[in-house]
Amino acid sequence: MARGRYAWHLAWRGMRRHPRTSAMVVVVMALGLASCMSVLAVFHALTADPVAGRHGETRTVMFRTKDEKPDPLRAVMQASLVQQVVDRLQDQTLAAVAYGTTRVQPATAPTDAAGDAETAVMFATSRIPAVFGIELLRGQWWTAADDHDGSPVAVIDVATAQRLFGTDNVLGKSIRIDDKRFRIIGVHANWAPALKFYAQNRKQYARGMAQVMAPFSAGDGVDMQMGQMSCPLGNMSDAWKQCSFSQLWAYDLDATQRQRLLQTATQVAQDFDKPPPGVTPVVYQPSLLTVREWLVLQHTVPDSVRAYVWVALAFLALCLLNAAGVLAARFLRRGAELGVRRALGASRRDVFFQHLIESGSLSAVAGAIALPLMLGAFALMRTQSIPYAALIRFHPGTFIALCAATVLTGLAVGVYPAWRAAVVPPALQVKQN
Amino acid sequence: MGGMLMLKTLKRNGFMPLLVVAQVVFALVVLVNTGSLLQQQMAPILAATGVPEGALLLTHQLNSQDAGQDQWSYASLDSAERAVRAIPGVIAVSSGMGTPMSVGGMLVRATPTDARSGRSVDADVFGGDHLVDTLGLHVLRGRDFSDSDYMTGSFIKMYQQTRAALISDTLAQRLFPDGDAVGQEIWMSPKPSKGRDPLRIVGVFSDTLSSQITGPSVHAVLMLPLRMDDFGIVSFMVRVKPAQRDAVMKRLPEVLGTALGMHNPQTMKVERYEDARAARLHGNTVASWLLLTVLGTVSIVVVLGITGLSGFWVQKRTREIGIQRALGARRGDILRQYQFENFLVVCAGAVLGVLLGLIVAEWLRRHFELTSPPLAAWAAGALVLVVFGQLAVLGPARRASRVPPVVATRSV
Questions:
Q1: Per-position DSSP letters for B107-168, written without gaps between them
Q2: Smallest CA–CA separation between B91 and chain A, in Å?
Q3: How far apart are CA A311 and CA B33, in angstroms?
Q4: From which residue to which does the signal peptide run (chain A) (predicted)?
Q5: 3-class DSSP state for residue A48?
Q6: Given this model, what pLDDT does residue B109 score?
Q7: What is the reported pLDDT for A239?
Q8: Which parts of chain A sit beneath pLDDT 50?
Q9: Inter-residue contact A345 to A429 (CB < 8 Å)
Q10: How far is CA A189 from CA A92, A176, A261, B109, B213, in A?
Q11: What is the pLDDT of residue B206?
């Protein structure tokens, strides 16, 4: 115990003896840690599984043709096509999803009232709550019969209920989506995956979560903004073929179910894309994508962020080497005095731990300084108009990672110099200098 | 003193030079990559806008729903243009889609492809009525759109039926590096579309900033002769006499909004081109400052690091220097010796750093389409680090050269 305290005492004195280099080591390590951890936190936010915590895999279907490279556009298809696939596979946890933003108002509001045109709306078939795992707070979801009839019913989230009606007891009230009336039959909990993966479109990081949900077939005639295009969902005719924006999402399918899904998708796509007589038909070979694969295909992690990760790692390495160099120089300068200590009976272990404590304390201080620096960097990033700014958040995991990084860097910086100091042979040092 | 002997000294005191080498390696990787990221961020800030200064006004994307309509017809847009042109000070006005500096809303990008060579380039598409004149650009070769080129129609019709196109100078050079672009044919997609004729380039206009303000496409713009009909989202561009711009800006929402039948004309957002550009480049500006800070920090860290290590090294070898001096080495010899040693060590680090950097860059290029900094950047980075190294060693080397020969006779 006393030995330990003595080692601390010596380490403290060591730091006090070189205030300038101590400060430099701390600042350099803090900068390295803060920049590296900030960039890694961004990277993590962008790569994290948006539907974490569910045991099954969520997948989408990509209708690519044979020998075609994976293209995310091939997963976003015409409404009638995905509808057919869902209709043929009634027993699977599978849903057709069309997503966009449009104006949503209480049905009692005047039709020409200026309103918020940016409400997130999702039209989906009735198995959507199971596919995405959306919780219902009150009321009920629509059924397969509603899908079939195109019943104008809707399930909205609590916040939208509060915004439109000032209460969350809204069952039976009516809203207008674009120009069409819908009766509210349910209120869902604010469903907020970390990234709105189902609406991911290249570099657009959707922030608002799906607020209003309604049967897929009820979307007929509703004009929505999807990405940068305005699409009338109903008129999915030839002229608007380029305006396809419906996707299939399936949850937790086993191998045979997946096989059947792919077969059905192939058939439907093949029938759908019948060429005029005399022209060879395109051969479809759809494939399944997990959420992760889908996001990779969408370039959710911008290349610039990858570049920043590499640069930040190299910067951290530079900072650590720098600190290690300064500490090594400092420890080895003490050669004579260490020789005396060793000659007086201090063990190698004592000397080693004395120096490890010295470097460890410095890195702990650096870690403590890095924390506010990192929070500052987050705040700075959030004020900028970077598309994924809303995803950058500080959570306990980040803090733990910072602590771990601090300890590791402390060891990386301290061990070698401390060892060099410890192997100083006692007698020789005393004699030499 | 021979080089071989110096190498021997370096070898004997391996640890310190090794640390310097490692620092130089990582410093080089950081400096060069940060530098090239900085260059990417700065490029659009420095790029010429190509439009007359102080003369352009842009409206935010106007939504026909705010006028209680699903779409605007060409007739209503045309009458709105007429109304705006009547404001004193207005020189030209055009409705359009994919306007300069637009961020959200309708922004159209295409990949024009040379119909013969199949070479394709990412570009912005601006569609509108006499846009070249409204944006204050010039036709460099060929001609502007004639009345027969213009087509009145919707978005899909435009994609399917437009036959004429104007391209910017940069786009022309990138699509047709060895010939005149005028009269050539292009596709609006990487592959020819079935049942459609290619577009014919009627002219080349002076470069202007596209909406895609990063990367090599910064000046790549394609213009289509489009009189918008049945569009739900429309932008307006207005060129005015610079002296009267503020006055026009005040009146524009009222005049344009009323002509378009909007319910709340005063909520219309009108921006000066320069403001829109500054807002669009705000992120680049911040990132540039951040990267400059990183560059500065890395420079300071690496110089201080080398100074510290060299200082320690000199101190450790004080006796040795004393002996050298006693044996006849002059001050200049000692100074040069340390400078040369530093040069060797930094060069070794730079060479390793370039190798490592190129290997990582190649790996990144294969996996993530990341472009690596050019070789010249690596060379420049290595040179900068050699200079930094010499600066850093200057103090310690001079201290070494001042060690008196008498030290050789002392025991400490």
A1: --EE--EETTT--B--EEEEEESSHHHHTT--EEEE-PPPTTT-EEE-HHHHHHH--EEEEE
A2: 30
A3: 7
A4: none
A5: coil
A6: 60
A7: 37
A8: 228, 232-242, 433
A9: no
A10: 24, 21, 30, 37, 40
A11: 92
* pLDDT of the residue at B6: 60
Q: Which tokens hold the place of A102?
A: 């449009």
Structure tokens at B29: 């990787």
The residue to which tokens 């009336």 are assigned: A181
pLDDT in tens, B290-340: 889 889 988 988 888 888 888 888 888 888 888 888 888 888 888 998 899
State residue A211 phi and psi, 5-degree precision.
-100, -40
Task: Return the pLDDT at A142.
Answer: 92
In Å, what is the CA distance from A373 to each residue of A28, A400, B30?
A: 12, 16, 20
**What is the distance between the alpha carbons of residues A382 and B273, in angstroms, rounded to a whole number?**
26
Please report the number of interchain residue pairs, chain A to chain B, with beta-carbon separation below 8 angstroms: 109
Residue for token pair 């920043």: A308
In whole angstroms, what is the distance from residue B394 CA to residue A414 CA? 28
Question: Going by DSSP bridges, is the β-strand pair A180-188/A223-226 parallel, antiparallel, or unpaired?
Answer: unpaired
Q: Which of A228, A301, A330, A432 is most worth mutating to test chain B (most B CB atoms within 10 A of its CB)?
A: A228
- Put simply, whether A114 touches B (Cβ < 8 Å) is yes
Which residues are paired to B97 by β-bridges? Answer: B127
* In the block, residue with structure tokens 């847009």: B77
Residues 18-57, chain B, touching A (beta carbon < 8 A): 19-20, 22-23, 26-27, 29-30, 33-34, 37
Report yes or no: A84 and A272 within 8 Å, Cβ to Cβ.
Answer: yes
Q: How high is the pLDDT of residue A208?
A: 57
DSSP codes, B246-273: HHHHHHHHHHHHHHHT-S-GGG--EEEH
Please give the structure tokens belonging to residue B372.
């690596």
pLDDT, residue A433, reads 47
Smallest Cα–Cα separation from A335: which of A320, A355, A363? A355
Q: Which of A224, A188, A228 is nearest to A209 (CA)?
A: A188
Q: Which residue of B has its CA nearest to A387?
A: B283
Residue pair A210/A50 in contact (Cβ under 8 Å)? The answer is no
Q: With an 8 Å Cβ cutoff, is B193 touching chain A?
A: no
Is the separation of the CB atoms in B28 and B347 below 8 Å? no
pLDDT at B191: 63
Phi (first) and psi of residue B225, to 5 degrees: -80, 100
Query: A307 vs B233: CB contact, 8 Å cut-off?
Result: no
C-beta of residue B84 within 8 angstroms of C-beta of residue B236: yes
What the block records as the tokens of B59 is 């409206």
ipTM tops the 0.90 cut: no
CB contact under 8 A, A328 and B19: yes
In sequence order, what are the residues at sequence separation of 6 or more whose Cβ sits closer than 8 angstroms to the Cβ of residue A321? B19, B22, B23, B26, B305
Of A31, A318, A326, the CB nearest to B308: A326
Q: Select the residue of A117, A304, A332 nearest B65 (Cβ to Cβ).
A: A117
CB atoms A310 and B104 under 8 Å: no
Residues of chain B with confidence (pLDDT) below 50: 1, 104-107, 412
CA pair distance B338, B280, nearest whole angstrom: 51
Q: What is the pLDDT of residue B213?
A: 63
Residue of B345, B366, B341, B284 lying closest to B27 (CA atoms): B345
Phi and psi at residue B6, to the nearest 5°:
-65, -40
Q: Using an 8 Å Cβ cutoff, are B47 and B262 in contact?
A: no
The torsion of the CA quartet A256, A258, A262, A265, rounded to 10 degrees, works out to 110
Say whether B403 sits in a helix, a strand or coil.
Answer: coil
CA dist A419 and A411 (Å) reads 11
Residue-level pLDDT at A25 = 86
Which tokens go with B137?
Answer: 């650009």
CA distance B343 to B386: 7
